[in-house]
Design a protein that fits this description.
- The protein is α+β, with helices and mostly antiparallel strands and about 260 residues long.
- It has 5 helices and 15 strands.
- The chain has helices at about 15-50, 140-150, 160-165, 170-175, 215-220; strands at about 75, 80-85, 95, 100-110, 110-115, 120-125, 130, 180-185, 190, 195-200, 205-210, 225-230, 230-235, 240-245, 250-259.
- The strands form 3 sheets. An 8-stranded antiparallel β-sheet has the order 8-9-10-11-15-14-13-12. Strands 6-5-4-1-7 form a 5-stranded antiparallel β-sheet, with no helix packed on it. It has a two-stranded antiparallel ribbon with strand order 2-3.
- The radius of gyration is 51 Å and the shape is globular.
- About 20% of the residues are buried.
Length: about 260
């Protein structure tokens, strides 16, 4: 008897679940990626917007322009023998100003100016000063030449202007001790025969020749004056002031100062 093996018909092999799931996952991933793409790009875009710093505008501070302080107001005394007092309504005379004296104004009140007088101050009526002063009319050499030719040089030889550069001690060493001195709140006055020196802050500030015998008409021969009044005449050059004052008895005093 012949032996016949039991041969079963061929059946398809069962494929595992993984074989089915894997393609599905790939499809899901591909589809999900397709649909998720806009959200992903939005996410990265928004992240870049957050993390990317915006340019900061740097404000350059404005540099304030520093303005120069205003020039102090300058006035000149326009009459002879003006009392500079301690207050606008005061009676205490600090100093007696003369025509041609130049001062800087500190303040103004009650129709008066407060003037800088070196170590002190004084008040003067507005009407006694002017802010409009003429320019110089002479050269230094012409002015000083007249002085040496027409005034007594006993105590100011050879060049009077050089005495304006001396301090008090040097003045006394040069011409000796004065025969008299007077002082006020501003100056010391050293008197010699026919002349006195005004000493301010220990330096010679002015030279005055007294009882000169020079009449106003003779003085005016010097040329066009800077200013002229009934009892005074002022000449100025670039560096010097020469003034004639007429007294009540027609005597004359002539003053030389540096400007």
């Amino acid at each position: 008897m012949a032996f016949h093996p039991n041969i079963q018909p061929a059946r398809p092999k069962k494929r595992g679940a993984a074989f089915v799931i894997l393609p599905l996952l790939l499809l899901l991933i591909a589809g999900g990626g397709f649909f998720a793409y806009p959200y992903v790009t939005d996410f990265f875009d928004s992240t870049q917007e957050v993390t990317s710093p915006e340019p900061v505008e740097v404000q350059t501070p404005e540099v304030e322009e520093t303005s120069e302080p205003p020039e102090p107001m300058t006035v000149w005394v326009n009459t002879k023998n003006v009392d500079l007092i301690n207050q606008p309504d005061g009676a205490n005379v600090v100093y007696v100003g003369d025509i041609g004296d130049k001062y800087e104004v500190i303040t103004q009140r009650d129709n008066h100016f407060e003037l800088e007088l070196g170590s002190v101050t004084g008040w003067v009526p507005e009407a006694a000063v002017t802010t409009d002063w003429p320019t110089a009319t002479l050269t230094d050499s012409a002015l000083l030449s007249w002085v040496t030719s027409n005034l007594d040089m006993t105590f100011s030889s050879p060049i009077p202007s050089e005495y304006l550069a001396l301090n008090e001690a040097e003045l006394y060493e040069t011409i000796g001790q004065p025969f008299g001195e007077e002082s006020d709140q501003l100056n010391t006055y050293a008197f010699y025969r026919g002349i006195f020196f005004t000493i301010q802050e220990e330096a010679v500030h002015a030279i005055d020749w007294t009882n000169t015998g020079v009449a106003k008409e003779a003085f005016l021969a010097l040329g066009e004056p800077t200013i002229e009044t009934e009892d005074a005449v002022v000449y100025e050059s670039e560096n010097y002031s020469l003034r004639l004052f007429i007294g009540t008895n027609a005597s004359t005093r002539i003053r030389l100062t540096e400007i």
